[in-house]
Specification:
Helix content is 65%, strand content 7%. The chain is α+β, with helices and mostly antiparallel strands.
Length: 578
């Protein structure tokens, strides 16, 4: 991609974000404005805002990259991301809005009348928020590196600075307008280019990808390797190499890579001919070779494909309702009915967006298989316009995609920072108020920014899946049982949050730092929802049954408030006329 065009696209997205945010800043005056936009956001606007912040880097970049690399199994990600709102609509949306809370810890304290439950919920909100921020900042670093060659940490730093300014300045009122605008920017940034990409694909005689084997280089391709790696070659291939191959320095010569493993040094360029199979890097010595990209449960994602698929389904289906940046948006609706209407609209908006991602993944497998070699599969959406269209038109489309990617980072990072800063301002800093909320935005974004500079090799969508697993194991049991079961007690809620959410958080943290890289232990830790969600529900139910005397005295009144519809608004009456 032409660097100038890409930088212009990213800069335009940032400036548009700041300008739209300034509109909200002009009408943000009270604490309620900052936290929940005074609970006056209309359903359609709120649906666009929810979709804008929900469609993160994992959706804009990660899903297409996973489809490119690992096949149809990865379509569970967009299915789960969308279907989670069905669960939210059926069980949570309207009662949660009627609770009158600002944040998830607010709801926990109001329902269970316990400061201890509130504190644990607050810790989990911060943990989930920081986990979710990691892939946004990593995606920002990847985009800026491709556009300018800058180090990966710089992109995360830029996003952190912009988000801090936008959130601290206008709060929820400002962010609502920003995120609604960013949804339409992201949809446009994918929809317009994909039309031209499909036309270029048709003009190229509509080639089909290699469905049942390793991908091939559709065209002559030069691959530059930034860091050392080991390749496994299954069919001998002749390449043009400059750099270090198997410990030998070469400079633009043609050589034959025979069957077997070959060590490629850093800063090495390999030129592959059209039709050559893509040799994939060895990432784990005992990982199976993919046998069918188009067949479910046959990818090399994990050794235990069926288990990991169920782990993904449970995490994404049940985790949405507990994501703090999503839940807080339902507090901004005027009433429970508006919250349900918002959720229905979100389902349509997300469905329209996710229909595009498989197209980018399939086209990436055809025209950007070299990303499998470098490990930058998340960049497929960014590089395809130049690969297929080329020229000035490709540069313009690439700039549009880069602007959409920037909007993905900014919108989700803004929502997450809002939710984490809200918890920190209410539960950590000494008093409530707009000033403390603004101060809380600094640690809310600074911690994941520092972590993103260290964790650099985790795929974007995978990292988001880890956050969903923690959410599903902690807040899903709390919300479902808290809203629909009168017998939930504070000791039961604490046990469920600690055993379910705490164990999932420990498992995913171990996965991120590389504590287990293969075998059943790795699978159980990387996809904990299969066991941690039942642990959370079971602990809450059993401990609550054992502590029936600890049911909060105000439970009946709280349950009535959650489930009884709000009274209709009183119509305004003007002076009588004759």
């Amino acid at each position: 991609m032409n660097q100038t065009y890409g930088i212009v696209g990213v800069t335009a997205a940032i400036l548009a974000t700041l300008l739209v945010g300034a509109l909200g800043l002009r009408i943000s005056r009270t604490t309620s404005d900052f936290y929940v936009a005074s609970r006056g956001v209309a359903p359609r606007l709120n649906a666009c805002a929810v979709s804008g912040e929900y469609l993160s880097a994992a959706s804009f970049l990660g899903v297409a990259g996973l489809v490119l690399a690992q096949g149809v199994d990865m379509l569970w990600f967009p299915i789960g991301y969308t279907a989670g709102f069905l669960v939210l609509l059926a069980f949570v949306a309207a009662p949660l809005r009627r609770s009158g809370a600002y944040t998830l810890p607010d709801f926990a304290e109001a329902r269970l009348e316990s400061r201890a439950v509130r504190r644990i919920a607050g810790v989990l909100v911060v943990g989930i928020g920081w986990l979710y921020l990691l892939p946004q900042l990593r995606g920002a670093g990847l985009t800026l590196r491709l556009l300018t060659g800058a180090p990966g940490w710089l992109g995360g730093l830029v996003v952190a600075a912009v988000v801090t300014g936008a959130v601290a300045a206008g709060g929820m009122r400002s962010i609502t307008f920003v995120q609604a605008f960013q949804y339409w920017l992201k949809l446009t940034a994918l929809l317009v280019p994909v039309v031209f990409l499909l036309l270029a694909w048709r003009a190229d005689h509509a080639p089909a990808p290699a469905w049942d084997d390793r991908p091939v280089f559709h065209r002559s391709t030069e691959v530059r390797v930034d860091r050392p790696l080991t390749l496994t070659v299954h069919e001998p291939v002749r390449v043009t190499a400059s750099g270090t191959v198997d410990g030998r320095a070469v400079h633009g010569i043609s050589l034959r890579l025979g069957e077997g493993r070959h060590r490629i040094g850093a800063d090495t360029a390999l030129g592959f001919p059209a039709g050559a199979r893509v040799p994939l890097p060895d990432r784990a010595p005992d990982r199976a070779t993919p046998s069918s990209w188009a067949k479910p449960l046959s990818s090399d994602r994990e050794q235990h494909s069926l288990y990991s698929t169920y782990g993904l389904i449970l995490a994404t289906f049940l985790g949405t309702m507990g994501l703090p940046h999503v839940v807080v948006r339902f507090y901004t609706n005027p009433d429970g009915r508006a919250a349900r209407r918002t959720t229905v609209s979100v389902l349509g908006l997300l469905g329209a967006f996710y229909l595009l991602m498989p197209l980018y993944g399939i086209l990436g497998r055809l025209y950007a298989p070299d990303l499998l070699l470098t490990g930058d599969t998340d960049a497929a959406v960014l590089v395809l316009p130049q690969r297929l269209v080329g020229g000035a038109a490709g540069d313009l489309l690439g700039a549009l995609v880069a602007g959409g990617a920037c909007a993905a980072f900014l919108s989700t990072a803004s929502g997450l920072t809002m939710s984490v800063a809200g918890v920190l301002a209410q539960d950590v800093l000494p008093t409530l108020g707009v000033r403390h909320f603004r101060l809380a935005t600094l640690p809310a974004i600074a911690v994941p920014t520092a972590a993103a500079a260290v964790v650099s090799d985790l795929p974007v969508a995978d990292a988001v899946g880890l956050a969903f697993a923690v959410s599903a194991s902690s807040f899903c049991p709390l919300l479902v049982l808290g809203i629909w079961w009168r017998g939930l007690t504070p000791p039961g809620a604490i046990a469920g949050l600690l055993l379910g959410g705490g164990s999932a958080l420990t498992a995913v943290t171990t996965t991120i730092v590389g504590g287990a890289r293969s075998g059943w232990l790795h699978t159980l830790l990387a996809w904990p929802a299969v066991w941690s969600v039942p642990v959370g529900f079971t602990a809450m139910i059993l401990i609550s049954l054992a502590t029936r005397a600890r049911v909060p005295p105000g439970t009946a009144a709280t349950m009535a408030r959650l489930h009884l519809p709000e009274p209709p608004p009183v119509p305004r009456t003007g002076p009588a006329t004759t």
